[in-house]
Design goal:
single chain; 2 domains
């Protein structure tokens, strides 16, 4: 990424500073465990005036970490956790059924027989906490 490209896109350099790996963090990256390295959270490196993307696969982790940090810093981590649990519960409310060819299809539980539903584990969300009902 070049300074001119950032300026053209209307992005101030300090807006992406949290995604730029500092020189002193580079050596820690070599010794870090997967998904714990500074490069995983700062996928841009400084090369003169340019900021090449050194770890394209880390963009997702870096952006998610930035969102989580922002929610914590602004005191909105509890609503975020609640929303994530609701999405998880919604996804878990679909029942997997195996076809004769042993390939699974996802169907809404309403389309699965009551007997089949009774044999499936269910997860419910109550008060922001997920709990399995076996």
């Amino acid at each position: 990424m070049r300074p001119a490209a950032l300026a053209f896109a209307g992005i101030a350099g300090d807006a992406i500073a949290r995604f730029v790996l500092k020189d002193e963090e580079a050596s820690a990256t070599l010794a870090a465990k997967p998904a714990k390295a500074p490069l995983d959270f700062k996928p841009l490196v400084r090369a003169g005036a340019d900021l090449p993307l050194a770890a394209p696969s880390a963009i997702d982790i870096a952006v998610r970490a930035a969102i989580a940090d922002h929610m914590i810093e602004t005191g909105r981590d509890a609503p975020l956790a609640e929303a994530l649990l609701e999405v998880q519960a919604e996804r878990l409310s679909y029942c997997a059924t195996a076809a004769a060819s042993k390939t699974a299809r996802l169907l809404p539980c309403s389309s699965v027989s009551n007997a089949a539903q009774a044999s499936l584990p269910v997860t419910t969300v109550s008060g922001g906490r997920a709990s399995p009902n076996a």
